Each structure stands twice: as C-alpha cells, then as structure tokens.
C-alpha cells in the first residue's frame, strides 16, 4: 500500500512539473502586445527554458542600453538594482561620511564596526539583526528587505535587543522592491553612470547550459560561485555574439532566476 501511494505521489508530481520561474533577460521573437515589438530585448519574470510564452507582461522592462553586458539586467540593472537603490535613496537617504552595513549570512558585526553603524541594510534577520541593533548609532536607519536566515525555520527567531531602538532613536522600516518599479528609470540612470565611470565593479559567475542549473543552484549554498550566479541557455550561446543574450540568474538571497 505504501508503494502504491508513493508511485501515485511521484506520478502526480511529474505531471504537474513546471519550469523554475524568476528574473531573466530575453529577446522577443513575436508579440501581439502593442507595448513591445519583435526583436525587443526585455528583462523581467520568465522561466528556465529556451523559449517561453509570457502572458503577463506588466513586469517586463525594455532594455534600451546595450553598451553594458546584457547579463547585468538579471542583477545590478534589474531587480537587485531596484532593491538597492530603493533601500538607499528612498528609505535610508545616506549622507557623506556615514557608515553603512549591508548584511550577508555570515560575519561578526561588532568586530567590523567598532564605532557603530549609521545605516543597516538588512537581508539576514535573526542573530545578525540582533547584533546590528546593538551597534547602531543614534538616529540610525535600518532598511529591511529580506530575512534569509528565517525563511526555512519551523519557528522564526525572535529579536531580543530592541531597547537600543528606543534610546538611540533608530528608525527601522521594511520595504518591497515591487513598490518602486515606477522609480526604475531614475535608478537605472544612477547605476549606469556608476558603471560607465568605473565607480562600480560588478562580478558575475556565468554557467552555460540549462543542464548546469542544478549544480549552480546547489553551489550557492557552499559559496562555490564568485559574484552573481548567471545561467546562460544554449541558444544564447549563438545570440551572445550578436548581443542578443538570453539568460537568467540565481541570488544567494533565494531563487532569483529566469531563462526564456
């Protein structure tokens, strides 16, 4: 009986298998949408496959600037860039000379910031958030866009060190990048200027072929990749020479990927 149920479960899973979806860069081969034309390059939500039919186009953005690698639109010039700019320019409003800490899922906060933190860009949560709060300066700002350490816990960890928020008058605010899509043009101008002037260096780790996707995803959790993990589909190998790149990416903050 157990074996019968197991087979039925597996059969059901196989029948309902869907491609992984996320953010990627694509070239439009055909469209009936008046906002797009054949040959347009776009970034937005798509799937891990060579070709896709995208019905929901509200979150697709045309790519107008191709003097930078198209793969950048899966990260720094895409969702990751919107998140970073929204957190800094709209939530935190940093000033020259202030100390800014952007968290990752490792490290000792007090060790690296003995004089305190003015702005904390929170991605981790849990013990990291607790430590950061203890190291905040007066009138500091905490912008919360993720809590990666908490997502898969059966019972999320509570924050214990809240008292400094009161006597240091620290502001803590959560935000979602989706609310700042309307600011994309402004954010893009800022980021492109940094890249073109050489003020910002962006590192990518590109794996070619959809068959490399499982290994690339697993590698994120062991730190195997150096920089943003990007997946390049087979057909993109041909289009790459023409600057028509079809690719997707993973983020260590969770799955942030897409191929079309």
From TrEMBL:
One of its GO terms (molecular function) is 2-alkenal reductase [NAD(P)H] activity. It comes from Escallonia herrerae. This is Alcohol dehydrogenase-like C-terminal domain-containing protein. PANTHER family: ENOYL REDUCTASE (ER) DOMAIN-CONTAINING PROTEIN, PROSTAGLANDIN REDUCTASE. Gene3D superfamilies: Medium-chain alcohol dehydrogenases, catalytic domain, NAD(P)-binding Rossmann-like Domain. Residues 108-190 form the Alcohol dehydrogenase-like C-terminal domain. SUPFAM superfamilies: GroES-like (SSF50129), NAD(P)-binding Rossmann-fold domains (SSF51735). Pfam families: ADH_zinc_N. It comes from the Eukaryota.
């Amino acid at each position: 009986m157990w074996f019968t149920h197991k087979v039925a479960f597996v059969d059901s899973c196989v029948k309902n298998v869907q491609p992984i979806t996320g953010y990627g860069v694509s070239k439009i081969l055909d469209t009936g949408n008046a906002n797009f034309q054949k040959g347009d390059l776009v970034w937005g939500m798509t799937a891990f496959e060579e070709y896709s039919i995208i019905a929901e186009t509200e979150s697709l953005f045309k790519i107008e600037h191709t003097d930078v690698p198209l793969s950048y639109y899966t990260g720094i010039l895409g969702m990751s860039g919107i998140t970073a700019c929204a957190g800094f320019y709209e939530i935190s409003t940093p000033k020259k000379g202030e100390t800014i800490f952007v968290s990752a899922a490792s490290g000792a906060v007090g060790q690296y910031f003995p004089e305190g933190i003015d702005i904390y860009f929170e991605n981790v949560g849990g013990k990291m958030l607790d430590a950061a709060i203890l190291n905040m300066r007066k009138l500091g700002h905490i912008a919360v866009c993720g809590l990666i350490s908490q997502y898969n816990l059966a019972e999320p960890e509570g924050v214990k060190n809240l008292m400094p928020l009161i006597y240091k008058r620290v502001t803590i605010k959560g935000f979602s990048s989706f609310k700042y899509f309307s600011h994309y043009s402004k954010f893009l101008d800022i980021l492109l200027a940094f890249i073109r002037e050489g003020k910002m260096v962006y590192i990518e780790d590109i794996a070619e072929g959809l068959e490399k996707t499982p290994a690339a995803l697993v590698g994120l959790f062991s730190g195997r990749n150096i920089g943003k993990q990007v997946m390049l589909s087979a057909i993109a190998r041909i289009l790459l020479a023409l600057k028509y790149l079809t690719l997707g990416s993973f983020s260590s903050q969770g799955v942030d990927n897409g191929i079309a």
